[in-house]
Design goal:
The chain is α/β, with parallel strands linked by helices. Helix content is 33%, strand content 16%.
């Protein structure tokens, strides 16, 4: 394509004005830059937006939104619902006995007997919603939570589960929910990305890698930008400007060549998005250092979130939660938080909630890591008047079995597990759906990951069936061809 464009351009010009050697070399050199630019972008040969102009967002939401922004607390590894938000007294009665029902195939098939939760459940708040002793601080804000106890997923392996929870498909190549939200609603802050993934300490992307935060076939500007919350250079190659004027001149100079290539490519949406990314990066050079500088936050705020904790993982996660609040204040559309590896008793670096053994120790450590920071985030947003317009989503990729793996762990369970939402027009202090008395299968108001994201989009003012992108001859959606809004958990 590059050769055809430049050859035809040369023929057009030689009819009236012969090209000099110097002009030929200048034009050719910009072409090599264009090749590099094209190589950095996704293949979009068959992509075409039918609903929205690239990067513009909806001119008007489909209906009145209840929320403007989303915080996604992703609990990578698969939190056990029967040890967190779905109390099952029957497990105590049957503890140590064989399962009374047929056991589905598990990830490792090292299945033991019924295992009671090592954590106690008790009613909390005015609602009396039961929550595990794993989360003593979250119990103080339980009246803000809407717990969905009947989520299901068709996959039972971490990478597939992570992709499915993020993008609605069990493999890479599809836009994440964050990318869809940023694409559908556009940006409210020209200095920061619309979709930010926070990491800190030893946090790494879950199984599936950075593709979990991909823009897929959507314009490149909507991919998740990973921000290392506690690093001197929070985003690679984005550092504070010493001479903004000089940097501005360089960017403007590069833009002249980029615009030539954009015109030659007939205004290709992916080229346009890549050019906009350069502009966003320039603004981020001042916005990101200011965002990450929390020295102006009060001592009480640091203590409230747990940044002063002796536990390094808890303090690191607390920093993410505080930065999430600061990003919300700066109108960033979608923010995802990342758990950290706790160490002995926890899962691997990419899936720290994955306790196939010693669940009490591993889950206890992970609960300690995230409990206080998330509770502080919820109450802080509420006090600042931001919770009503911020939707918090807490979820892992699947649940865990009511029977043991080996002696004291649990295997993966995709047949029924819990997630919760808070803020953003959600009816707090409620529980929706149910698993059976063992917590094995969803049996009441069974719902899917598609239903979860349809509900999130609905609260953002978007009809999930109308948020589409024409790709490879098909109108693609975050919810594929499924999804129903969970109106019962909405106020």
């Amino acid at each position: 394509m590059f050769g055809d464009i430049n050859l035809s351009a040369s023929r057009d010009r030689t009819d009236t004005c012969p090209t000099s050697r110097r002009q030929f070399l200048a034009r050719s050199s910009t072409g090599f830059g264009a090749v590099a630019l094209a190589g950095l972008m996704n293949d979009s040969s068959f992509a075409d937006s039918t609903e929205l102009p690239a990067g513009a967002g909806l001119k008007k939401t489909h209906h009145e939104p209840k929320a403007k922004r989303v915080i996604f607390c992703f609990m990578s590894g698969g939190v056990s619902h029967v040890d967190s938000f779905d109390p099952k007294p029957k497990l105590k009665d049957l503890h140590g006995k064989p399962m009374p029902v047929t056991i589905e195939r598990t990830q490792f098939n090292n299945n033991g007997n019924v295992m009671a939760s090592p954590f106690e459940f008790k009613p909390s708040g005015e609602s009396g919603l039961e929550i595990s002793s794993m989360f003593p601080q979250l119990s103080s804000v339980v009246d803000e939570l809407a717990v969905v106890r009947s989520i299901t997923t068709p996959v039972n392996e971490h990478a597939q589960g992570n992709f499915f929870m993020h993008a609605g498909f069990p493999f890479m190549g599809f836009p994440s929910a964050g990318a869809w939200c940023a694409y559908g609603l556009g940006s409210e802050n020209r200095n920061l990305p619309g979709y930010v993934v926070l990491q800190s300490g030893n946090a790494v992307p879950p199984h599936g890698g950075v593709s979990l935060f991909s823009n897929g076939f959507l314009p490149a500007e909507h991919q998740g930008s990973i921000l290392q919350a506690d690093k001197p250079e929070a985003i690679r190659n984005i550092r504070a400007l010493n001479t903004a004027a000089t940097q501005r001149q360089r960017l403007d100079f590069a833009r002249t060549f980029d615009n030539e290539f954009l015109a030659a490519s007939s205004g290709d949406a992916q080229v346009e998005a890549a050019i906009r990314n350069y502009e966003t990066a320039f603004h981020m050079q001042s916005a990101v250092p200011e965002l990450c500088d929390i020295s102006g936050e009060t001592k009480e705020t640091h203590e409230r979130y747990g940044l002063d904790s002796d536990d390094a993982q808890k303090a690191a996660y607390a920093r993410q939660c505080l930065l999430a609040r600061r990003l919300i204040e700066r109108d960033v559309r979608f923010i995802e938080l990342s758990c950290l590896t706790k160490g002995i008793g926890a899962g691997g670096a990419a899936n720290p909630w994955d306790q196939h053994g010693d669940l009490e120790k591993g889950h206890g450590a992970m609960g300690f890591q995230v409990d206080q920071p998330i509770a502080a985030l919820i109450s802080d947003l509420r006090e600042r008047g931001l919770l009503d317009e911020t939707l918090i989503v807490w979820a892992g990729e699947f649940g865990r079995t009511p029977f043991s793996q080996g002696s004291n762990g649990r295997d993966h369970n995709p047949f029924g597990f819990s997630v919760w939402l808070a803020g953003g027009g959600v009816k707090g202090g409620t529980a929706y759906g149910a698993t059976d008395e063992l917590g094995y299968h969803a049996v009441q108001d069974k719902c899917t990951v598609y239903d979860l994201w349809a509900t999130v989009l609905h609260q953002l003012g978007i009809n999930h069936e109308k948020l589409t992108y024409r790709y490879s001859g098909r109108d693609m959606r975050l919810t594929d061809v499924q999804g129903n809004v969970l109106h019962d958990i909405l106020s």
